[in-house]
């Protein structure tokens, strides 16, 4: 028997269901490394840890911005419980559950090197919290049936094992998650919904370190366990979300719901995949197509193309990487290269956009993704630029044949994930500007701006720090 079980079984907590349907809502998020200069080696270290997580098998359904020198993860400020307390959680399109560190956690970080105050979740401190029982529908769906040895009142346990050796384990609970409901143009009001999520009681590896520490992870994967899937199943939200990452001013937008402006062209998601896999057809450099073998674009076990906002750089199979690099630097054959913290770097005076080629990824349904020199070449010091493209054959664990497209190619684009129609798409966009969201019940269209969360937590409207804009649609039935 798990030694933690008596503590949680002793919690006599009751959950009150809310019968009021909500219209639209928002979470506010900011960028982890905003205003903090990072050593470029930290980027690869972060991505290496992430690749171990996104590409590894686990025992529950789970998947898997600026300029590279200034960015890493994005995180949201959310409220949980009654009374509500603030938690900072990583916004992650590559994982499938929301979990936060629990008050009983061992080896959970007590401080964070990114300057935020960490908070441990205490189910006993929330009047609206309840344990998820092993015979609950949420638990049985996680395990594909009833847990072995399940009896009435036994809590639903979880354990996630990551490829980098780290892990998190604990119990599932249900509680209110607070956000800001969009109530009009540039206006919000408080709202909440009930969500089942992980209460982490044990961590190991990098998850227990204060380096890049947050209170948990906010998974936006496709599994039924993700928050967006739970809200959609309850009829509270359309299973559609979008993000827009700004390399010009930092931050951007993260949205759930029916984004009607800007318009986005889409390509099909490959069905029955754990991640956001798409069909990549060709790569164009400066108007000329790379002559790559067609089997390089096939999707299968540890193959294919994944869209992942949690990865800072972008990783290509070795054959594609070598051809791409040769094509790029054929435009500047006289450069002298040097290695800085394992990145290929060079000195260059002038505009990289004038001296290097644009790159275009071509996908099914004639959808293209433009990547400009200022996206894939980042300035490390005066007149010294480093290459953001990475050789997946040597950088990623178990993913040497995977095209893993991260923030390097997704920045300054609104990326739309339409899980209802199994499509994904994007369009170039000013990520520090407003978007328009439609309430499908009333037909109203609201303008929602980017915001800024200051270090003290004060929200400043009109700035371009990342905002999660959760559009919660009114139920078509009286839910």
Description:
It is a single chain. The chain is mainly beta. The chain contains 9 helices and 33 strands. The strands form 6 sheets. The protein has a 6-stranded mixed β-barrel with strand order 2-3-9-4-8-7. A hairpin with a 2-residue loop joins strand 15 (280-285) and strand 16. The longest helix is centred in the N-terminal third of the chain and has 15 residues, at 40-54. It is globular and about 70 Å long. The model is unreliable at 1-24, 53-72 and 452-479 (pLDDT under 50). The active site is at 92, 308.
Per-chain topology:
Blueprint: H1 5-9, E1 27-31, H2 40-54, E2 74-80, E3 85-92, E4 98-106, E5 130-131, H3 137-143, E6 157-161, E7 167-184, E8 187-204, E9 216-219, H4 227-233, E10 240-245, E11 252-256, E12 258-261, E13 265-268, E14 277-278, E15 280-285, E16 288-289, E17 303-307, E18 314-316, H5 318-329, E19 337-340, E20 343-347, H6 352-355, E21 359-363, E22 367-371, H7 373-376, E23 377-381, E24 384-387, E25 389-391, H8 392-395, E26 401-405, H9 407-410, E27 413-418, E28 423-428, E29 435-438, E30 445-448, E31 451-453, E32 459-461, E33 467-470
Parallel strand pairs: 3-9, 4-8, 11-33, 17-26, 18-25
Antiparallel strand pairs: 1-2, 1-33, 2-3, 2-7, 4-9, 5-7, 6-7, 7-8, 10-11, 10-27, 12-29, 13-28, 14-17, 15-16, 15-21, 18-26, 19-20, 20-24, 21-22, 23-24, 27-28, 29-30, 31-32
């Amino acid at each position: 028997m798990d030694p933690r079980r008596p503590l949680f079984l002793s919690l006599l907590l009751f959950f009150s269901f809310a019968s009021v349907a909500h219209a639209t809502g928002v979470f506010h998020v900011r960028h982890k490394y905003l205003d903090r200069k990072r050593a470029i080696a930290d980027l690869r270290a972060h991505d290496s840890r992430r690749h171990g997580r996104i590409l590894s098998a686990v025992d529950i359904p789970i998947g898997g911005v600026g300029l590279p020198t200034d960015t890493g993860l994005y995180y949201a400020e959310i409220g949980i419980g009654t009374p509500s307390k603030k938690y900072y959680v990583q916004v992650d399109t590559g994982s499938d559950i929301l979990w936060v560190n629990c008050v009983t956690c061992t080896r959970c970080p007590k401080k964070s090197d990114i300057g935020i105050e960490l908070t441990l979740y205490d189910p006993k401190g929330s009047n609206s919290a309840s344990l998820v029982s092993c015979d609950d529908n949420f638990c049985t769906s996680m395990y594909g049936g009833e847990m072995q040895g399940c009896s009435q009142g036994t809590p639903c346990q979880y354990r996630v094992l990551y490829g980098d050796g780290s892990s998190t384990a604990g119990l599932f609970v249900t509680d209110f998650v607070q956000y800001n409901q969009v109530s009009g143009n540039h206006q919000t009001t408080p709202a909440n919904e009930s969500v089942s999520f992980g209460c982490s009681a044990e961590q190991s590896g990098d998850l227990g370190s204060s380096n890049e520490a947050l209170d948990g992870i906010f998974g936006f994967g496709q599994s039924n366990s993700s928050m967006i899937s739970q809200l959609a199943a309850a009829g509270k939200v359309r299973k559609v979300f979008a993000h827009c990452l700004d390399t010009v001013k930092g931050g951007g937008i993260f949205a759930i719901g029916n984004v009607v402006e800007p318009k986005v062209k889409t390509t099909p998601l490959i069905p029955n995949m754990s991640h956001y896999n798409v069909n990549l057809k060709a790569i164009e450099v400066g108007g000329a197509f790379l002559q790559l073998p067609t089997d390089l674009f096939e999707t299968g076990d540890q193959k294919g193309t994944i869209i992942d906002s949690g990865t800072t750089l972008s990783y290509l199979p070795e054959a594609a990487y070598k051809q791409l690099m040769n094509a790029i630097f054929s435009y500047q054959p006289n450069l002298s290269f040097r290695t800085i913290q394992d990145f290929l770097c060079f000195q260059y005076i002038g505009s990289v956009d004038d001296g290097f080629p644009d790159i275009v990824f071509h996908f099914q349904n004639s959808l293209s993704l433009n990547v400009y020199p200022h996206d894939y070449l980042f300035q490390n010091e005066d007149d010294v630029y480093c290459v953001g493209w990475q050789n997946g054959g040597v950088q990623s664990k178990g993913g040497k044949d995977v095209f893993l497209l991260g923030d390097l190619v997704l920045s300054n684009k609104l990326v739309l994930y339409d899980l209802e129609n199994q499509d994904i798409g994007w369009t170039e966009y000013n990520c520090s500007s407003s978007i328009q969201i439609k309430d499908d019940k009333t037909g109203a269209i609201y303008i929602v701006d980017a915001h800024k969360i200051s270090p003290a937590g004060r929200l400043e409207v009109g700035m371009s720090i990342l905002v999660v804009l959760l559009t919660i649609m009114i139920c078509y039935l009286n839910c």
